Amino acid sequence: MNFRRPTGFVVGFALALPALLPVLSLVAWSCAAGSFAKGIPSLEGWMLLARTAVLALGTALLACGLGIPAALRLLAIRRWRFPVLLATLLIPPTIHGLGWASVAAQFGALMRTVGGPDLVFQGTFAALWVNGIAFAPLAIGLSAAAFLQVDPALLEAARLFQPAPRAIRRILLGIAAPYLTIGFLLIFILSLQDFTVPALFSVPAYAMGIFARFAAERDPAALAAQALPLILAALPLFFLVSRAWKRLSGNQIGGPVQPLGGLGLGSPVTKLFADLWICLPALAPLLLLGLSFDITRWRTAVERALPDLGYSLELAALASVVAVVLGALLARQMDRMKRALPLLATLCLIPLVLPSVLPSIGVLKLMQILPPEWEDAGPFLAALCRVLPIAAFILLTARRRRDPGLLDAARLLGRSPRQRFLRIHVPMLVPAAAAAMVAAFTFTMGECAGMILVLPPGRSTLATRLFNLLHYGAGPDVAALSTLLSVLSGAAAALAVWAAKRGTRWRMRS
Amino acid sequence: MNPTNALEVRELHKKYGDVTVLAGVDLDVPASGSIAILGPTGCGKSTLLRCIAGLEEPDRGSIRLGDRWLWQKSQSLQPSERNIAMVFQQPSLWPHLTVRHNISFAVSHLPHHEATERTHWAMNLLGVASLAHRHPAELSGGQARRVALARALAPQTPLLLLDEPLVNLDPDSRKATQEAIHIARKAHPATLLLVTHDRGEAEELCEGIWPFKAKAALNNSDR
Amino acid sequence: MKRFAFLAALVPLLLATTACRKHSPAEVVVYTSVDQPQAEPVLKAFEARTGIHVLPVYDVEAVKTVGLANRIIEEKGRPKADVFWNGEILQTLRLDKEGLLEAYQPPTAAGLPASYLPADQHWTAIGGRARILLVDTRQVTPATCPRSIADLAKSPIPANRRGMAMPLFGTALTHAATLYTLWGPEKAHAWFADLKQQGVRMLEGNASVREAVARGELAFGILDTDDAEEALGRGDSVAVSELDGDGALVIPGSIALVKGSPHPESGRVLMDFLASPEAEAMLGKGGFFQVTPRNPGTCRSLPSGHAKSMDVDWAKVLEVLPRTSEELQGIFLK
Q1: Are A278 and A308 in a shared domain?
Q2: Is the minimum CB–CB distance between A151 and chain B shorter than 8 Å?
């Protein structure tokens, strides 16, 4: 099925429609009512955005700075610890914040008793530290996925000439750069739109203004205008991702997915340091959860949350499956596009960059048109509009790095397009599809603020229940649900690793 | 024997799970000499090369280059500390770097001017200077091999390991690469250890041939 | 092409697995910003009593109680909610102003103060929480103990040990808008600007203020009585300061019937239950409401001295809300 160039963008746009519809709906509604001018930020607003972007940049740097060595270490030890250590992926940043604040308070009290300085854990440093640690598991997961894509022979060739640290820096990181850049961009975007952690440590954040407007008045146009600069802030980084895609094009760097054993990270001290890095994201939540361990209340909390758990799993599974299937088609179309690719990719970026309540308002508007029986489609659409671009970007990166020789061979030797698709194309994309599915699954499971607007009556998700409980501090109920979320994300990561390995074997057998 | 680049392997053992791949291999390659290890695919000859390069850890035995122990029970040098270059079955060029950067990475530990000099020397020697700014994806199979060879020669190591360097090449590229290896050896007379399953290739490139017996000891007596 | 057809068919198929849900004949949809752990037992009791199946949608702290009010506004063409059960009052008044509420006053509301029962019967106030000062007893002495909300700006305790929730959302915003109404915009603006200039800590929410006081990070902070109850219940080293002057601001909860709702009859039955002294007692006992007009009792977070509450015209507060938010964004978000 070959699309001619003029229709390429149209087809791509049609495939991206589930992600774009809520935004289009929001724009249509904004144009019909309200005033854009009111939401355009003042000079102070732009300054705040700049500071928020710097904080988000710092968060992404810290998370990736933690995530990359930790991922290297995890891949070198090649054990079940990999999925287990990713279990902190779904713990909300707020819990990390409360945990670190608690640790800092204990330390401060200790300092006061010995006559030390009066330490208060607040401000930009505290927000940066907590956000960086909270996003580190995501960085670890994405970095590990990136490194698994690199042919180990290339790293071996480098290790002959240069010591392991330099080989890793110049060769492994260089080859994995496109994936790492996507991970960096994702963390930057998530950090840019989050205000809960900065607020916890008294740091103003740009997204806080959007929520404040949402709370105080109902002017959709002003709300959209105020959110628009977030897209501008994310564009420079997105430009980097686009460049990485271009560089990938046609590069024959495909290889079997296999653990990077024997990396030789260096001395035992370096290894210990990397191990500490791995454990750091789990430290504060574990401390907080451990302090409030109460088996009876844990059991009650989990029993009460079971219906929410079922619904969350159903929703996340559905959204991630559809996101990966549609994302694969969208990535295929994007891969064929040339000049129109940046435009379509930027459009797809919008629902990701906007705070989740805004696309959800768009979905809410759409739901007014759909028949009432379709009310369950609301949360699905709200989730899909954010996870489809993620899946498409991951799969596009994977497509770009496939060995064209293998595809040509398949075209020459494959008996039918169907056989070619099922036995060559699909297995080659399985590791990336698994990574995309985990990302989509965890995103949907963790989504909260946007979901409130679209959840059908009688339904609630695990994340909404957890946030409801957070109002009462990090007690046993919060501890129980956080643990449940951790088990789920650990299981999802384990499943992804298993799927990636199975996919590779399948691919090799094919 | 102890000239600085003579290779000595003693009683080398390597198992993968229950499968014995190397069972007490002994091997001597004289300084600046060239030996081809001949054997069918999958017999373990590449594993021997990887053990010498430090990419695999032997179970027991010893490996010495000149007066330096590369590996024995009590000590093991990292691959980059062994001062060995290797050309793999596949060119294994780093896709994100240009030809020039692929070669210069191998000498990036040297002072800048020396590294630049060596890079140019290797590129000119193998005739790839005109490809300096291309990425590996833009090279033909033969060109990629020559670049891989230039990368291996640039550090001017005392030992050069070649793992089936001519496999999958068309006759013209094969001939060009063979010539390149000869030129390279003339310019820098390193000890050469070649692994191949092709007797013609072994005879063309090396002074001596040792047939490699699967899972058995490789001794001088096999010569 | 067949492949695409197959995939295109897959999406609606998967959607259909979740989209088809049976609704029971007697049911009621309630949108509530009352915390889920507090609201759930009340709704379960209602179900047990009446047999009417309740389909709740809960708001969360992350959207600061406005999510559901905004949702009702967006759904006005085809309302889904029968009852809006609000933990505070302003968002209910906002819905009333938009003309989205149906007149109904539950007979069970008898005995509530007159200010809880508007003449147009578009909503009914129930119970309430108060804005109070929680102090860390390890840090605050009788000499330094704050006695008024205004002491947040004027205290011998260092500014970075005083705090409140960022007054851009939730009850903190309601409180700020009330001060704008009572003190006048100029004075209130100057007061908040003074807080910012001094470096008084503005935290993410009332729960954060409570935790900061409990941990000793703050010597005192302004928060809601339900937050204080939690800390007092845990046995933290905290106490509620007796307020003099204007007294405490009491923010009542509220219930309202949504206009054009799908199950108005069931909605009225639910409203009758929520307005009853029984539900008030349940919410009081659960710790959500500390102001319970028909169930007077001693409340740890609302000592007798707080019985006096600020005299507030909520309609005016609603009017001044956008201006308050905009001005406070100008102060705190820079």
Answers
A1: no
A2: yes
Domains of chain C, each with CATH number or no CATH? 24-128+251-286 (3.40.190.10), 129-249+312-332 (3.40.190.10)
Block means of pLDDT (10 residues each) for chain C, 334 residues, are 47 50 74 87 94 89 68 88 92 92 94 88 91 91 86 90 88 91 94 93 86 88 89 88 76 94 94 94 84 73 58 88 89 84
Which among A310, A332, A323 is positioned nearest to A488, based on CA atoms? Answer: A310
Tally of structural domains, chain A: 2
- Cβ–Cβ below 8 Å for A166 and B108: yes
**Nearest alpha carbon to residue C34 among C139, C128, C112:** C128
Inter-chain CB proximity C173 and A216 less than 8 Å: yes
Q: How far is CA A363 from the centre of its chain?
A: 21
Interface contact C329-A209, CB threshold 8 A? yes
Q: Which two tokens stand for residue A199?
A: 């607020």
B127/B130 Cα distance (integer angstroms): 7
Nearest to A136 by CA among A183, A173, A170, A94: A183
Mark which residues 236-295 of A lie under 8 Å from C by CB: none
pLDDT of amino acid C2? 46
On whether any CB of chain A is under 8 Å from the CB of B155, the answer is: yes
The rounded distance, in Å, linking the Cα atoms of A110 and A100 is 15
- Mark whether A61 and A116 lie in a shared domain: yes
Measure CB to CB from residue B105 to each of A158, A252, A264 and give the nearest one.
A158
Instruction: Tell whether A117 is within 8 A of chain C (Cβ).
Output: no
Give which of C15, C67, C43, C44 is closest to A455, Cα–Cα.
C67
The predicted structure's pLDDT at residue B221: 38
B and C adjacent (3 or more CB pairs under 8 angstroms): no
ipTM of the complex as predicted: 0.80
The answer for residues whose C-beta is within 8 angstroms of residue C302's C-beta and 6 or more apart is C130, C132, C225, C240, C248, C290, C291
Q: Mark yes or no for CB contact B80/A160 under 8 Å.
A: yes
Chains that touch A (3 or more CB pairs under 8 A): B, C
The pTM assigned to this predicted structure is: 0.79
